[in-house]
Design brief:
Number of domains: 3
Oligomer: single chain
CATH class of the largest domain: Alpha Beta
CATH topology of the largest domain: Rossmann fold
Structural class: alpha/beta
Number of helices: 12
Order of helices and strands: HHHHEHEHEHEHEHEEEEHEHHEE
Number of strands: 12
Length: 310
């Protein structure tokens, strides 16, 4: 196996698997058995080999606590279409599931982790528009996670969640590097409003309306129009269309779409993208007589005025 052709998530998972086996007492040969990696390839994986798209490599060092070879630039990340991708670091499974479901219904792609160490690693090695970070975590608290991320140069906006609501607690969270602070229990609509505010700060130089041909997406109102007519989309359909509009006239592979519009648990073999794309076409293309979403056989999809040459 050549690690340079793995996605960032695949590299992270593979490296974590190998490191876990090494820490459990296996020698390197046993840890690599079944992975398809040679010792040399594993060394490249640890060093952070970049893939054909120039993606950042996995962490170096020992597992999720290692330093990152290169950090994603927030402006570049938004240009690559991850403006809807959030990271939730919350150790309460019920709360984490509620946040993931509620944010997902609003069109966000949400990755969830329950530990501070893993949250810090994901935040430093992947591109997120914002991080929702619990303070009381079992392994290392959110204050330390925030400090470490800022120290490592990660500027992703952080919304800190905590049951500790005194003024000194809030000051401590903000001084640790959080951009906002929300006390539990909270109203979900307030959390959504705070997330939107964080995203607006991160998109200060970006237009609030995206356009391609006669398609118009109002990012603040989360509304879509084509030829001036309002089109009702689900949250995921809207996120999918936004990703297409941010990357017009380019072939977008299913893997790229899955990583940016869904979450880190997306299975590339699934046909969910094709199903959603079919539904999106039925709403955004079919009623208007001029298709803009095109299938590129064997590759993926493209948003363009004219069908691609195949």
């Amino acid at each position: 196996m050549n690690p340079s052709y793995l996605t960032p998530l695949q590299r992270f998972r593979l490296l974590a698997q190998i490191e876990a086996q090494l820490q459990s007492g296996d020698d390197l040969a046993d840890a690599l058995a079944g992975t398809g990696l040679t010792a040399e390839a594993y060394a490249r994986l640890q060093a952070g080999a970049t893939g054909p798209r120039g993606e950042p490599g996995p962490p170096s060092g020992n597992g999720p606590r290692g330093a990152v070879r290169s950090l994603p630039d927030p402006a570049e990340a938004r240009a690559e279409g991850c403006a809807m991708r959030l990271l939730v670091v919350e150790d309460n499974p019920k709360m984490a599931q509620t946040l993931q479901r509620g944010l997902g219904e609003q069109g966000y792609s949400v990755d969830v982790t329950h530990s501070g160490h893993d949250g810090e690693h994901l935040a430093a090695s992947e591109s997120y528009a914002a991080i929702i970070l619990d303070v009381m975590l079992p392994d290392q608290d959110g204050l330390l996670v925030a400090r470490n991320l800022r120290r490592r140069g990660v500027q992703t906006p952080i919304l800190m969640l905590t049951a500790l609501g005194t003024t000194p607690d809030k000051i401590g969270g903000l001084d640790a590097g959080a951009d906002d602070y929300l006390v539990k229990p909270f109203d979900f609509d307030e959390l959504l409003a705070r997330v939107r505010a964080l995203l607006r700060r991160g998109q200060a130089q970006e237009a609030s309306v995206l356009r391609f041909e006669d398609i118009e997406i109002d990012l603040l109102r989360r509304e879509v129009r084509r030829s001036g007519e309002k089109v009702r989309l689900t949250g995921k359909e809207l996120a999918l269309l936004e990703y297409l509009v941010r990357h017009p006239n380019r072939v977008l592979t299913r893997t790229a779409i899955g990583e940016q519009v869904w979450d880190m648990n997306f299975e590339p073999e699934s046909n969910v993208i094709d199903v959603y794309m079919s539904t999106l076409r039925r709403k955004i293309d079919r009623p208007f007589g001029r298709p803009l979403i095109h299938t590129v056989i064997g590759s993926g999809y493209m948003l363009s005025q004219d069908p691609p040459d195949q």
